[in-house]
Write a structure and sequence with these properties.
Elements lengths: L34 H15 L5 H13 L4 H14 L3 H14 L4 H14 L5 H11 L4 H13 L6 H13 L4 H12 L9 H17 L4 H13 L8 H4 L14 H13 L4 H15 L4 H10 L8
């Protein structure tokens, strides 16, 4: 094992009196920190107590983050130090990149990155780095959340490059629900409830249908398709002809998508004269195509008999 980094015999820290952690006389569950980590934290407490913002303090936070990247207080102190000493924020991004790749699921890294990029007032290079991160895990929640922050912060909703990028992610994995969620965000996120232009409405409906035809049992594009119809305040029946391609009650043994059957049930439920057809669709889901959720489908069936049926 490589030797650790210690400060008690470093002349650069000889003026600092470390402050050890105080757990009380009889801690119920004292954490067994390593000597290296305990000492580094004791020096950090000391410099924080003196409100010291310095290069050595920055190096200290880097050391601690390498040992424990989830320590939120250390990240806050690092951010404040960068500001106080006027550090090169481009250099900070260069340091963050391999750190994020090493700790893929760490929230604090992404919060810190937001702070730095916000101060830089530029998203240059961020798209390439996000692509690198998603190569490791294409559904990493923190990365997708950060991408949405970038879109909102720099007004990228209507940028064709953003739509092209997310289409590429969906083409790569049509079942990537994170990519579908991002598409919704960029198409709808900047609209503030405004009506969807006819050309965009058609584009989005066509795209979702295209994706469904590639993988009919994939729930994400079905949810997206229905969401578009709901946003446009259209009746669900506009999807009837398309839905019948995958689930037709006249051919109960040839259902290619339980999601299509679910949608068909809702379409029939909208039409008072078709309630029995809706029940047949729900029966098929409960008994044959999604029996693991039979209780849910049977509950939906009971709702159809109520005055105000809720899908």
């Amino acid at each position: 094992m490589a030797p650790g980094i210690f400060y008690h015999d470093d002349p650069a820290w000889s003026d600092v009196e470390p402050i050890p952690q105080e757990d009380g006389e009889h801690p119920l569950a004292a954490i067994a920190y390593t000597d290296e980590y305990s000492e580094a934290m004791s020096y950090l407490r000391a410099v924080m107590a003196q409100n010291e913002y310095s290069e050595r303090g920055l190096e200290l936070t880097e050391h601690i983050i390498n040992m424990n990247p989830a320590h939120y207080t250390v990240w806050l102190y690092r951010s404040k130090t960068l500001e106080e000493i006027g550090a090169d924020l481009h250099a900070e991004i260069k340091w963050l990149n391999p750190t994020a790749l090493k700790h893929l699921k760490n929230y604090q890294i992404w919060h810190h990155r937001q702070i730095i990029v916000n101060k830089l007032d530029s998203s240059e290079g961020e798209a390439d780095f996000i692509a690198t991160m998603l190569e490791q895990d294409n559904k990493n929640y923190h990365v997708w959340s950060y991408r949405q922050w970038l879109v909102k912060r720099f007004g990228l909703f209507s940028k064709p490059e953003e739509l092209q990028w997310v289409e590429g992610m969906i083409e790569e994995d049509v079942r990537n629900n994170s990519a579908w969620n991002h598409r919704w965000f960029i198409v709808m996120g900047g609209r503030d409830g405004k009506e969807l232009p006819e050309a965009i409405l058609k584009r989005e409906l066509d795209y979702a249908k295209y994706a469904i035809r590639k993988a009919p049992q994939n729930q994400s594009p079905w949810n997206y398709l229905r969401g578009i119809v709901r946003y446009a305040k259209l009746p669900l029946s506009v999807l009837k002809a398309f839905t019948l391609e995958f689930a037709d009650l006249a051919r109960p043994d040839e259902v290619f998508s339980s999601h299509a059957l679910d949608t068909l049930a809702d379409i029939y439920a909208e039409e008072n004269s078709q309630k029995e057809e809706a029940k047949k669709a729900l029966d098929l889901l409960a008994t044959k195509y999604d029996p693991i959720r039979a209780n849910y489908w049977n509950y939906r069936k009971k709702l159809l008999d109520q005055p105000e049926a809720v899908s």
